[in-house]
Design goal:
- By secondary structure, this protein is α+β, with helices and mostly antiparallel strands.
- The chain has two domains: 89 residues, Arc Repressor Mutant, subunit A (Orthogonal Bundle); 64 residues, 2-Layer Sandwich (Dna Ligase, domain 1).
- The chain is 37% helix and 12% strand.
- It has five helices and five strands; from the N terminus they run ααααβββββα.
- It has a three-stranded mixed beta sheet with strand order 4-3-5, with no helix packed on it. A two-stranded antiparallel ribbon has the order 1-2.
- α3 packs across α4.
- The longest helix has 16 residues.
- The chain starts with 8 loop residues before the first helix and ends in a 7-residue tail after the last helix.
- The relative contact order is 0.11.
Length: 161
Amino acid sequence: MQTTERPAPEDAGRAAAWSDRLRSSGRRVTKQRLAVLDAVDHHPHSTAEDVAAAVRTVLPAITVQSVYVVLSDLTAVGLLRKFEPPASPALYETRTDDNHHHAYCVRCGTVADVDCSVGHAPCLTPSEHHGMQLLSADVVYRGVCASCLAAEAESPSPVEG
C-alpha cells in the first residue's frame, strides 16, 4: 500500500494564497514557483544559492539558473522582495506588504527586519522628489549583531609585545 504525504494545513493555505497571487499577477502556477516561494518564506533573507539548495530538496532536477529566473520573475511581480546588503549577494524575502528596512551585521552577515520608523511609505521625507511619486525607501542599518559582540567580549585581547 502506497501512501502520499499531504502538506500541512498552513502550507496548503499558503500555497493557495500564492496561487491566487500568481494568477492575479498574470503568472501560471507552477511547482517551481511554489517551491521557490515556500523556500524563501521558510528562510527569509536567503541568497539565490540557498534558495536553490532548499528547492532541490523537493525538486532535485531544478537548475540554479531556473531558480534565478523564478526569483527574478517573482520579484518583478511583487511576490518577493530583493534586498542587496553592502558587499554581499542579493537576499530574498516574502515580506513585501510594507516598507520595512534591514539591519545588517558587517561581521557575520546576519540580517534582521526593522519596521518602518515613521509609519507609512516611503518612511523618509527626501529633500527633493524630482517629480516622482515615491513608493518606498530602502534603509540599511549597518552594525555588529549581539552574537558577534558577545563573541568579541569572550575572546582574549591580543598581547602587545
